Amino acid sequence: MQVGNDKNIEIRKAIIRAVAFYDLFDFPLSPYEIYANLGVKAGLKDVLEALDGSELGRCLGKLNGLYFLAGRESIWRVRQERYVIARRKYKTALRAALLFSRLPWIEMIAIGNIIGANNAKDNSDIDFFIIARSGKIWLTRFFCSLAAKILGWRPHGENTRDKICLSFFITEEAMDLEPLMLKGRDGGMDSKDDPYFAYWIANLTVIFAKPGVINKFVGANGWIKGILPNWPGPARGHSRAVKLKSCRQGAGRIMDQCLSPFSAALKKMQLKIMPAAIKNLANRDTRVVVNDNVLKLHVADRREAIREEYSSKLINLIG
Fold first, then answer.
1. Which residues partner with 68 through β-bridges?
2. Is 23 helix (H, G, I), strand (E, B) or coil?
3. How far is the C-alpha of 181 from the C-alpha of 160, rounded, in Å?
4. CB neighbours of 7 closer than 8 A, spacing ≥ 6?
5. C-alpha angle 149/106/208, rounded to 5°?
C-alpha cells in the first residue's frame, strides 16, 4: 500500500512540475498534455485520477478542461488568443517550408520554440529547426537565408512579427541533440539541468520531412525518455504538412550537382559576414555552436534564466 501511495505522490509532484514549467509561458495544459510532459512514467489513467483527487487543489486550478497554477485563471484566455495567432503564423511557416523543401539537401523542417505548442505572441518570429543532409549544412543555410531575405521573411531589429528565424541547423550526423544541453552547475552534463531544451525538443512540430527522417530523429534522441518518459515524439503538421512531390527529385539532383561545388566558398563567405556577436560567442558553450554539423546561433539564449526561474517556482510549490 505504501508503494502505491509513494507512486501517487510522485505523480502529483510531476504534474505540478509540468504545469509549473508551462506557467512560465502562460500556457495551461490539458490532461493529455500533462501526461505527455510528465517527468515520471505513468499511464494517462493515473494522471486523470491524480487530477480528479483533492490533493492538488491547493496548487492547481481548472477551467474548461485546462489546468494551471492556482490563481492563474487569466492564462486560460491567453492560450485561446495565442492559438489564433499561431494559426496565422503557421500559414507563413508553411509557405516558407514549401519553398525551402525544394532544396534537395533538406531532410526535415520543424517549428520550434513555444509556437510548437501553439502558444505564439503576436509580435514573435517563427523559429525553424532544419535538418540538412550530411555535408550540406552551409549550402542549406545560404539558400534558405537568401530566399528569406528576398521575400522579406527575415527579422530585422524589432520587426519580428511573423518573420522566419533561421538560427538552428543540424545535419543527419548531429541528430542527437543531448550535447547541446546546458552544462550543470557542477560543470557536468545532466539533462535535468536544462528543462527548457528538453521541452523545446518535445514540442517541435514537423511540417516537412522526408520518409524515415522523423523516426531517425526520435531514435537519436531517445535520452529524452529519461526526462519525459511519455513523450510521443515530435508533433506532425498533419494536413498542414508540406508534401514531397516526386517530380522535384530529378530537379533536386540537378541542383545538387550544379551547386555542391560552391559549398566551400559559400561556407567561407557566411563565416566572414556573420555578426560579431555570433563570432564572439561561437563554440564557447552551447548557446552558439558553429561547425559543419551544427549551426546553433542563439545569441540571446535564455535557458539559464528560465532554469533559475523554474527552480525558484518549484521550491515555492513543492519544496
1. 61
2. helix
3. 26
4. 42, 46
5. 95
> Among candidates 135, 115, 117, 134, which has minimal Cα distance to 125?
115
Residues 135 and 7 in one domain: no
Q: Which residue has the cell 520531412?
A: 209
> What's the CA gap between 107 and 270, in Å, rounded?
21
Name 200's Cβ contacts closer than 8 Å, sequence gap at least 6. Answer: 112, 113, 116
Give the type of residue at 109. I
Q: Are 30 and 149 in a shared domain?
A: no
CA 303/CA 182 separation, integer angstroms: 8
| 52: CATH | 1.10.10
Residue 310 forms part of a structural domain: no
Residue pair 107/81 in contact (Cβ under 8 Å)? The answer is: no
**Per-position pLDDT tens, the chain of length 319:** 333 477 889 999 999 999 999 999 999 999 999 999 999 999 999 999 999 988 888 899 999 999 999 999 999 999 999 999 988 899 999 999 999 999 999 999 999 876 666 788 888 899 999 999 999 999 999 999 999 999 999 988 788 898 999 999 999 999 999 999 987 654 444 446 799 999 999 999 999 999 999 999 999 999 999 999 999 888 776 545 566 555 466 677 888 888 889 999 999 999 999 999 999 999 999 999 999 999 999 998 999 999 999 999 999 888 6
- Kindly give the pairing relationship between strand 126-132 and strand 164-165: parallel
Answer yes or no: do 108 and 134 share one domain: yes
| Same domain for 249 and 160 | yes
Domain that holds residue 39: 2-73
The DSSP code for 194 is -
Supply the pTM of this predicted model.
0.90
Please write down the HEC assignment for all residues of 261-287.
HHHHHHHHHHHHHCCHHHHHHCCCCCC
